[in-house]
Amino acid sequence: MERPISAVAVANWTPAEQAMPCPDYPVYRDGDLGAFPDAKGTSFRVWAPTASGVTLRLFDSGMPYDTAEPTQTHAMTPGAAGTWQIHCDGIGHGTYYDYLVRFPDGTVNRAADPWARAAGVNGRRSMVVDLSKTNPDGWAADRRPHIPSRDLVIWETHIGDFSNDEHSGIPAEHRSTYLAFTYQDTSVDGKGEFPTCVAYLKKLGITAVQLMPFYDYGSIDESIPRTDSKHGFNWGYDPLNYNVPEGSYSTDPYDGTVRIRECKQMIQALHAAGIKVIMDVVYNHMFSTDNWFERMIPGYALRRRIDGTFADGSACTNDVATEHPMMRRYIVDSVVYWAREYHIDGFRFDLMGLIDVDTMNAIRTALDQLPGGASVLMHGEPWAARETALVSGTILADKRGMPYLSPRIGAFCDSTRDAVRGHVFYQWVPGYLTGAAADYADDIRHAEDGWRGTLHGTASVGQVVQYVSAHDDLTLWDKLCASMRRIPAETDYAAEGEECEDLLNANLLASGIVFTAAGVPFMLSGEEFARTKHGVSDSFSSPAELNQLDWRRAQRVSELVNHYAALIRLRRSNSAYFGGARMIVPREDGVVVFRVGDDCVAINPADKTKTQPTTDLEMPGPYGEVSKIAPNEWLCIYSSEKDSLAEVKQRKLTLPPHTFTVWRRNRG
After folding, report:
1. pLDDT number for residue 630
2. Which numeric CATH code is attached to 578-665?
3. Is 350 a known active-site residue?
4. C-alpha–C-alpha distance, residues 292 and 406, integer Å
5. Which residue of the set 381, 449, 550, 599 is catalytic?
6. In this structure, which of 64, 453, 476, 557 has its CB flanked by the most CB atoms within 10 Å?
């Protein structure tokens, strides 16, 4: 989402606005909502409990949806629990359709099918799909990579950003598409000197790619070619058809089959590279208050205040009433559908703080019932943009609702983010690495220990998603520029020259904090090469050129990339980094030192060399005994400083200024 709420704001929330009660409509429980082809034709069923009649309209194509006359129309008959149904002989895969829904007051609404699994251009008309016809070669053999929780490293990107750069190594016709992920051996120069795209990810060592929304969203006109400047750009947080892939990422948005097949090819390619795929999903709001649900079941899908106006906790004009039984059922079924049909490995829930805990837990339970479903990840933003309207007794999956969530549902930790880099909404306010080390040192110590015993409701460190940058707000590099320069110059944003050394050091330390912290490390794509958006904090509709990954920059700032790769290797070399106990060394200054297993991690943000007595690093054994460690048993195995002077002198670890160092106990 564009603007997550701050921790301070959450603490000061007042009771939610009073909401209109849920209409008492029957709940349909069978799994045949939508269009399902068979040997004789296709069965259609929709849930429209307040309609007085529903007409199915059939078309040969998905466009034009506003003027074309249907090839056939069929009056549907009432079915069980508020549904309308019909079976049409001779109708099969590739037929487009929509509905005319009539109401007792004489109103007639045209609607696409909310339960559709395929659609034509711009998603305005649904399509009958035989999903077996959409599978790429080898799809039956596709398997989710087995990656233990301790080895998770999440890298967030946007399908357009990933390959739009002309130096991405992707052919022009496949840039900004699903198919860009199917190229396994690309480079900046085409000769393999510096890898890009999937080849780059494999070298970097990340184990999961989190993709910003790729269901069918409403802000981009799919009929305009990607190469046309009028095509535009958007992050995609505006759902139109939840169960249909976005058409603008396909090579043919007019054919509903193509987007499905190419989306599967993307997932298949990432799996082949050993990388999990996490889908960013937005079940908290829709593209508009005028949507297929509102046209088909007016007054049901979206939260309304007691005066009948739309609640707007999302700051996007509307909030989905996830607590209403059929909306809960829809969301659960939708997530399960993506996991089962598309082999999705995980789900990131946008503004999870607007979704009720019962719905979130129901999703977890349903996923667990799939073959291998227990490995499917779930995490989200435990906040909202503003208040929503709730019926008394509804508990939301925000920070206050964490105790009611399954311990296998994680949440982004903005406490770590803000402690490391400074206040998220006030660009110049510093954090631990940007001028206020002494003020935030204790917070960093808590962050390294996964905030155990401090964050209310977190049952395990596996629920804590540790990060310092995501698609929202300033990139890490831009935040460093804002807080350390106040008025950044172009050379600052460009990360060029010796005058940027302090910014680079801060970036090195920030990543060190995240990758040695208990929990799951997460990073924005390009964070590892000082990604800049030139101070634009929320680029959700900025030009593609501002948002795209700059692969030549990645090559130029390759030393920083190598640092991130080294941190990933370090983390995977010691399983204790994920959830092992930390022994935090007490200090009175801004230096943070802790032990985890046989490693000692030291973060020195100061301008001067600091030291750490080795006697403070002795950890008690299981029975309280202390094993004395000779000072020469500590060896600096990694330093963020290229020519590090980190060494052991006079029973003290030497910690050079502005460095992140890791020391390992040598047991011989």
Report:
1. 65
2. 2.60.40.1180
3. yes
4. 31
5. 381
6. 476
